Amino acid sequence: MKWPAGYSTVWWRPTAALLGVPGLMAAAAAGNYYAPNLFYGVDLLFGSIFTLLAAAMIGPLAGVLAGFASIAILPELLSGPIQLLLFVIEPLIVGLAYRRWQRGLVIMDLTYWLVLGVPVLMLAYRWQYGLDWWTILLICFKTLLNGGFNALMAGLLLYACAMMPKLAQAYGIARPRLRELVFNTVLAAIMLAGMIPIVQTNNWQRDQAERDLVRAMTVDARTLADHVEALGAKTPLDAPIDDVALNAALQSISLMPDGAAAIVASDGKPLARRGVVRALNSQGTALHAFRGDVRVFLPRGRIPDIQRWQDARFMTTALVSGVSGVSLVVVERPAGPLVGTLQTERSAVTFLSADLFFAGLVIAFLLSQWLSRPILALQRASDGIGEKIAAGEQVTLPSTAIHEYAQLSETLQRTSNDFGHTIQALEENQMRALAAKEAAETANRAKSTFLATVSHELRTPLNAILGFSEMMREEVFGPLGAQRYREYVNDIHQSGSHLLVIVEDILSASAMEAGGITLRRRLISLGDVVQSATLTLEQSAAEKGIGINISAAPDLPNIDADPNRIRQVFLNLISNSLKYTQTGGTVHITIEPANSQALRVIVKDDGIGIPVEKLQHITRAFYRVMDETIADAGGVGLGLAISKELVALHGGTLTITSAADQGTTVDVTLPIDAPPDIPPDTPPDTPPDTPTDGQPTP
After folding, report:
1. What is the pLDDT of residue 471?
2. Which of the four CATH numbers 3.40.1390.30, 1.10.1760.20, 3.40.1010.20, 3.30.70.250 does domain 14-174 have?
3. How many helices (DSSP H) and strands (DSSP E) are in the chain?
4. 336-382 and 178-234 helices cross at what angle (nearest 10)?
5. Which pairs with CB-CB distance under 8 Å and at least 24 residues apart come from 232-238?
6. Model-level pTM?
7. In 3D, which of 562, 575, 558 has the Cα closest to residue 635?
């Protein structure tokens, strides 16, 4: 199941839930049980603080469990299914909305009560209990304020948890936004500062009214007791007072409006009554109230608290002494008049509280906007600041009159300026580097051009020297005469051949560096090419007393390659083996299939080998393994580099394995078919007068 963005798919984090849910359930129950009484039957229920906190921290299901715990502690809340439904649905819906949109709990909770909670309460109190609209309006106002205040406190606790990294990580609490943090904090400060004197004033008015009532009822009870005692003084000793006298005593006192009184015998039975004394009829539940002997009798049944208090009775008693058969007198008064008076006075307090709450909403909203605007403006100005600075634009960050914000803006402005200067310096360095690179490339091109020109210029006279020296060595036009001349002619021919090889290597290296090497491919026999290269070097090998052994597998397929370039590769490899193999050694050449798509040629000698630490550099251009045993080997260190590059151009690989005093093995693998990224045919890159066998022609 895919959840909307911003919604946590984990309702229960096992460890956090096991620790957090029971604690929040207990806190929700305690919050409702110890709710302060603001008016008769109207309590400020704090349990919703912890139900909303559970829904926001752990998940809606945890909020529902905490909601059940908060109402289970108060039987009067369980008496009405609508109240039960509202208290359980509140954390469920508010928790779902909060975790979906991640907005303030206050707005979410007020929206819930305005859209769903208040309309359901109004219908229930009107059609189920028959309360008047004014009383319903007051109850709904109180409920709305209670919900908003509890959501406010829950939001502050949630932000406090978000400030603790480990706790926030355990419960997945999002970091608070500055606007919401300022909004909730300011609103809470306004509510606490304004509500404390309002509640204190309301409590003082209630206590004063209760004291006046208790005083008046106490006077009535004492007066009635005095009348009964006076009757007892006129009655003969141990003679009971007749009912007529007792009723006359009841009628002789002036009770408070809607009051009732009774004279009670020693066995608890009423002897005389005036009005309906509900306490004697056991039609309610007696509760201790206020102070002294005053008790409150509340009617039983499923009726809302405000109605129960309007139907309640206050009762006080006074003992009767010296009268036979009489125990005490009881004075009662309905609570309705007092409740009505206090309810009328409370309406002003209720609307004052509502005005304070909504004024706090406006002030908190404006203040949160004002405090967060500089940060948001700074954030908007900082978006894309890197691209702007990189583009060379001047970035100016906004400032503000608030000192801390101004310092932050100045710090970011300095950082931006420093970053801009760094970017500018980097661009200047880059331009200098590009200029240096272009100069180096120009010098490199000049070097390559120079080498190519010199090589071509050297090759022409060298061909003439080699051709004429070869003719003289063969004595084409007659004998040379002295033996010393024949030796000189051989030295001239060998030195010229060696110099021509060096020139050819330099020319090939320059062409490869400039990307000018091209291939002229056709189907060739790899064995024939290797044999041709070997024949060219046979005389040199014979002069050094080194044998060359060639072993080729039968029925080898032809490969698609440039014969001149492949021959150049093996001329270099076999020549190297001959250079570094001492007299009496052997160079072994093996030609065999590598796999169904490639052939391999292994050139192995038993020469001096290459140290392991120098092996990785051996194919680098102009790199030579300097050693006193091979100081006279000649060459400039281009043969292996050129060979590896030519093999790579054919799509093959060249690997070298060697160790000091253990010989060297070169493994060349060439594909049978040309790779698809190599053009099928290219014109030759060598001039017509370039020899293809590495040897001069006359």
Report:
1. 83
2. 1.10.1760.20
3. 21, 15
4. 170
5. 232/320, 232/322, 232/323, 232/324, 232/326, 233/322, 235/323, 235/324, 237/324, 238/324
6. 0.47
7. 575
**What is the residue extent of each domain of the chain?**
14-174, 214-340, 519-671
**The two three-digit tokens of residue 631, written as one number:** 């100081």
Q: What helix, strand, coil percent values describe the chain, rounded to 5?
A: 60, 10, 30
**Three-class DSSP category at 205:** helix
Report which of 139, 146, 145, 94 is spatially closest to residue 116, judged by C-alpha positions: 94
Find out whether 118 and 16 touch, Cβ atoms under 8 Å: no
- Looking at residue 345, its pLDDT comes to 64
Average pLDDT over residues 246-275: 86
Exposed/middle/buried for 323, CB within 10 Å: 0-12, 13-18, 19+?
A: buried
Task: Classify domain 519-671 by CATH architecture.
Answer: 2-Layer Sandwich (3.30)
- In tens, the pLDDT along 60-71 reads 888 888 888 888
| pLDDT band per the 50, 70, 90 thresholds, residue 302 | low
Measured distance CA(647)–CA(670) in Å, rounded:
7
Q: Which CATH class is domain 214-340?
A: alpha beta
Helix (H, G, I), strand (E, B) or coil at 129: coil
Q: How many CA atoms lie within 13 A of 528 on its CB side?
A: 11
Query: DSSP per residue over 209-269, as a string?
Result: HHHHHHHHHHHHHHHHHHHHHHHHHHSPTTPPPPHHHHHHHHHHS-PPTT-EEEEEETTS-
Query: In this predicted model, what pLDDT tens digit does every residue of 632-671 receive, in sequence order?
Result: 445 556 778 888 888 888 889 999 888 887 888 999 999 9
Q: What string of DSSP letters covers 172-183? A: TPPPPPHHHHHH
